[in-house]
TrEMBL record:
GO cellular component annotations of the record: cell outer membrane; transporter complex
One Pfam family per UniProt: LptD_2
Name recorded for this polypeptide: LPS-assembly protein LptD central domain-containing protein
Keyword annotations: Signal
Source species, domain of life: Bacteria
Residue span(s) of domain LPS-assembly protein LptD central: 211-715
Annotated source species: Pontibacter korlensis
InterPro entries: LptD, LptD_2
Amino acid sequence: MRYYILNFLLLLQFAIFSSPTAHAQGVPAPAVVRQDTPTVAAQDTSVVVGQDSLNVAAPKGDIATTIKYSAKDSMQFEVDRKVVHLYGDAKINYGDMNLEAAYIQINYETNTLTATTLPDSTGKEVGTPVFTQGAETYAAKRIAYNYKTRRGRISEVVTQQGEGYIHSEVVKRNENNEFYGLHNKYTTCNLEHPHFYISAGKIKAIPNDKVMAGPFNLVIGDIPTPLGFLFGLFPTPKTKRASGVIVPSYGENSRGFFLNNGGYYFAWNDYMGTRVTGDIYSLGGWNVEASTDYVKRYSYRGNFRFTYDNFKNDEADVESSRTTDNALSQLPPSQQTFWINWNHSPVTKPGRGSFSASVNAGSQLHQRVNYNGSAQYLSPTFNSHISYQKTIPNSPFSYTIKASQGQSTQTGTMNFVLPDLNFSMSQVSLSELLTDAPATNKWYEKFTLTYNVRASNTVSNVQPARTRSDIPVLESAPADTVPINFNNLQRLWENGQKSAIHTFGIGLGNYKIMRFFNFSPSVNYNETWLDEKYSYRFDPDSQRVDVDTTNFGRVYQYSAGANLSTTIYGTVNFKPGKKVEAIRHLVRPSISYNYRPDFGDERFGFYQRTLTGADPTTNRALYQDLARFRTGAPATGLSSALNFSIDNSIEMKVKAKSDTAGAKSEKISIIDNLRISSGYDFARDSLRLSVFRISLNTKLFKFINMNFNSTVDPYERDINGTTIDEYYFDITKLKLGRITNAGLNLTASLNPEAFRTETTTPDNLPSLEREPFDPLLPQYVDFKIPWTLNLNYSMNYNRTFGLNGQNNLIQTVGLDGSLNITDKWKVTYNATYDISNQNISYANLQIYRDLHCWDMSIGWVPFGQLRGYNLTINARSALLQDLKLTKRSNTGYTY
């Protein structure tokens, strides 16, 4: 029956296309629709020449949907055999299946599609068949597919499964979209002839799930290796996260031979995964780490990592490995350490609060024993914080709730601020706070107010003794170190310094004086509340100072000031035709005055003078009633200071290089900023003039950045180096004073690409394997820039006075950059030379090799505590990240 239907449809198609009025008259479309007018021969075989495209409607039966096919050269219809031949760039679309090849045959009798290559005029096979179904793509020399049973047989096929490619001699595909391969090569190299592959006789692939192989071995450069196993399992999930075993790496260091970073990855879902790994060492000890990554789209992302290390150092060969050339190179004793890292980053949204966290805390020596870079090893302190911040919508108010912690890896001191509450009000007009009347531009409507209050509790595990050591006394008592554990939590809390600091800023407006001057007066008020207040009394019998403590203390301080500033322009124009058209000098002078009372005066009651000995004239000390607190204490001494500064910038206007009419002139900066500042305190009885501070920054030749700073003392000094109230500077001789310290920094970036155009950083380049001796390794290696060179020079000068006075000069010069020897070889370097001590303080050399589907890196640190080398060769694909070779020098850990 289908035979007659097909013949009828072909004849009906010819009749409809021969009658131009058929569609216009509303005749329904036939089952077979041609896009152009065919030429139909009289015999049973129809030959069509030219670009053809057919849509065969789906009748009831074996064909489930419409078959769309086309060919560039010709089509042949064998009606009696129910076969269609497509020649030249043949294409078939059947549901979610697409097939392209030089030749395709459709057999309606057997429900099969057959695709092969065809030889061209030179005899070369062209038009490789490509079969696509859903997200899966197959390329082969011959493809046979049954569209009814959805089974197929593919010869000499290359298919992609996830990040991997499978080369097979023969592949059979079943109705579940699974396929079985014979004589296979599994690789992540995308070349027709891969650099390496896993050779397996049999492979079964389940798309978007996994690839399973029988006995296999690794082949590199067509050379078989004995590396392999009895079976292989390669996850190829559709999602990026997949659970699986993490194969450990091996090597040797000062803790002996080791297996490193072996464990399991748990992919809970697409947004959260946990990595549990461990290390084990032949000389004793082990390490375990659990790391969880999480993300919520448009809300937050973060990582939490916990590490526990059981460090052992009780073997004789560990003792013998200690070196004596550096006092810091000896290993610490056996101990158990831990470390916690937590980073949480929110996506800020208007009107919503944001929670953030950055936690780096743990045992004192953990980072020294388990360092993975020079920055981590040399860091003396680690800081942590957890905070929640929110701005109240449609109001000037915001608040922050925070907890912070800091610890020293050298002394073991730990400081906590818990809790740390901050509430603030941004600048608002006083008239808006006091009345709802509209603004009328009155002078008092310019008054503004800002407010901030910070309430905190500061806790430290190193605390003074809770007796006389709370205050300055004749003899001091040793500090008390409190171990941090659950038993001491109450003691630590009670010894914390609880305070609330209120800050008010009152702006009195901005005013124009004589059109050119800006005048801005202001008033500041601070008030501090603390949980303790002291009063002192000298006991002549015991010859000591007795202290009485109350549970609440309040102190305050205030000041007033004003600022006067203006801007002065000066321009020198040159004659037309000159290369330099003009030079402009911009000057910004500023003068400010600040007044603050002496809060050490007895009328305020914040400080108390008390006898400390039998002599009432000489043994009288000044104590503050909040001696234990270092923040919030009012300043002593009257201040009536006039501060002044002057900023200068000079730029040049030159003729444009282009001769085009109307081309704009170019501006070149000669001095970005030259600043001179000082002050004069009228309330001092001597040494009223402050030191002069000079700073300069500019850019030379468009690629050299220069920064200079200096401090100049305007006073004379005696033979012992003590400053005396005699001016050294002489305006008539342009002498400001003696230079006490100075610093100069020059940096030059020589990058040919930077001179031509700005470069962008690729976002999708693969990262290289990071090792302990490659702390300067970038996250990616850019093989496009031919070379880069950065030079820097640093000079620091410091002068001391007196009989033993001397001039200290420290100079260093450094360079870093990269060099692309070829498109595949890249060298990066970094070195610093200490001119003062005439030695190389640090040097690092890295060599990278792009091996197409592999990466190779060689790192060498020839000097310093981290000196050594490392060699890493690893597969670039994340799927085979454990396929790597690592070799590094045996360098000991230090503390």
